[in-house]
Amino acid sequence: MSDQDNQQEKRKQDDNKKIDQLKKFYRDNTDKIMTTDEGVKISNDENTLSAGDRGPQLLEDFMYREKLAHFDRERIPERNVHARGYGAHGVFECYESQSDLTKAHFLQKAGQQTPVFVRFSQVAGSKGANETLRDVRGFATKFYTNEGNFDLVGNNIPIFFIQDGIKFPDLIHALKPEPNNEIPQGQTAHDTFWDFIGSNEESAAMMMWIMSDRTIPRSFRTIQGFGVHTFRLVNAEGKSVFCKFHWRPVLGIHSLIWNEAQKIGGADPDFHRRDLWENIEQGFYPEYELGVQVIEEGQEFDFDFDILDATKLWPEEEVPLQMIGKMTLNKNVENVFAETEQVALHPGNIVPGIDFTNDPLLQGRLFSYTDTQIYRVGTNFKQLPINRPVCPFHNNHRDGSQRYIIDKGQVAYHQNYLAGNTPYTVPGSQGGFVTYPSLVEGLKVRKTAPSFLDHFSQARLFWNSMTDVEQSHILQAFSFELGKVNVPEVRQRVVNLIGHISRPLATAVAEQVGVEPPDKSIKQSDVTKSSPTLSLMNTKFLPNTLKVAIIVGNGYGGNALESLLESLKEVELKPYIISERLGEITADNGDTLNVDATFLTTSPVLYDGLLVVGGDHINDQFAYEAGNFITEQFNHYKPIGGMEEGATLIQQLGIANRPGVFISQSGSRQFTRQFIDGMAKQRFWDR
């Protein structure tokens, strides 16, 4: 037998051995009945036990408690989700009294200020993940009110993947790096995530949101925040309304584009936290308005969606948004671990005037977050400075790990004589918390409420609301994500799911990822309405604090550039001088400029716009590097300006007459105005 025959025989034996191993793995790991850790067979792993279809969830649900308690302890000490985060301190100011809606003390008086702490975060990645990966961003705010802490714990997307908290471990297990190889980090472009999406129709609307530009934000300063869940507001007379909370950035809502986001991740993996830190340090304080949507109790069933379903939003055309206050972040943390990492945010932290609803995902979080914080930070995590309320607090809790408070006296129980029954309870009329007496009725069931079963109408609403540019980005996102999925059947199942939302989109994605278009039996949603507020193209975007790269060489026109820099700074644009080497460069009039970064130490993707000035003594290498900056900015649709020698460099590239490209030999006032207006527009999609 020849060597070639021996090699073929060996390969054949190796292949047969692998097949036998796969068969054994399949036999050992399939056809298994799901049970609890005690071996109790599980009949329903999709729904938490609740009182009626839409009723509150029951503490007796041992299966839910076991599943979530185990999940909460899977990672130490890093957060299981939202591990990579960054925080800042600030203040919230109420616009005018909201006493008709709520008795919450911090919303009773115009001008009333409340200290806050905000933690922005990513859901999927570890603490070391790249910050510009496609991901949902957490937007969690702790209000230190006079009545205790209120935590508004949400995301930059108004809905979520699932309807019931019992499925949260499954979602995160599918989202996280696959356990056999711990790949990929902080990304959804892999088999298990899309297998979960394709297997859970309730995720259809969220699927559209995460494939949009919302999940690649420009900065923490330009993202929206949403409480996601339906809460109650209760006023002093005991009247209740349903409520959703919104944060709106004053600068406007702005995102990266995918190619840009990938490159920024390599150029600066700390891009978002650096942006937040630097702007606060420089006095450019991020601002966000707080808005509420309100539905009267009698209107609960007036909509074509269930208002308690966390996979649904309330369209602003049907439920208007009213702004009630503004938050300003004005102080960076002094120690990231002590503050940002140890802050324990929890949707169960509410104050009188704010209450819960039977939203099943919210109900699940009420257990899970406390359980997680006790495990992760310790029994007495609420005594840490970042978590401690600003109002006095007293109770009979004692001991436990890392106890900070030194309790005095011999009494640690309620209803006592020895301490004069201190601490004592107070009635609701004196500020004691009283749960809103909503009606609860129904049989104990594990069941999805029928009103929660429409999974495609709002996904279609979102698609209808996108501009052509945004729809093309969503197509690109699906093509990239599913293009990373190895199993064709998983790609096909997701394409079929998309077919319920938009058959043309599904067909286009199918062509890109090598599967069949949806079968004709798959019915596309017939929703025709749209919600313009869902499109990022309809947001007002301010140029303040945007970064302008200015490429300058020796012999530049000193008078013209000095005038231009003053104009940029007047509108709070932030210029950065880029050149061949660090140090000073000299103008034609003898003025000098300090160089902030070199072509080697920075990247064009880190800036929101570009001005090319050049100089009398630029060489071929300088022109080459400047050309790379111009091309990158042009390809990302950003504003570009050129003056003096810089105008010539732009003309040589053949883009001088394209939208958003401004040139002037002298740097006139008109040129400066055009460039500033271009920065306010930010993207020139008609290129």
UniProtKB/TrEMBL annotation:
InterPro entries: Catalase (IPR018028), Catalase_AS (IPR024708), Catalase_clade2 (IPR024712), Catalase_clade2_helical (IPR043156), Catalase_core (IPR011614), Catalase_haem_BS (IPR002226), Catalase_immune_responsive (IPR010582), Catalase_large_C (IPR041399). Its cofactor is heme. GO terms for biological process: hydrogen peroxide catabolic process; response to oxidative stress. It is an enzyme of class 1 (oxidoreductase). Heme binds at residues 79, 119, 168, 365, 369, 376. There is a cross-link at residues 346-369 (3'-histidyl-3-tyrosine (His-Tyr)). Residues 1-22 are annotated as: Disordered. Belongs to the catalase family. HPII subfamily. This is Catalase. It comes from Oceanobacillus iheyensis (strain DSM 14371 / CIP 107618 / JCM 11309 / KCTC 3954 / HTE831). The lineage of its organism: Bacteria, Bacillati, Bacillota, Bacilli, Bacillales.
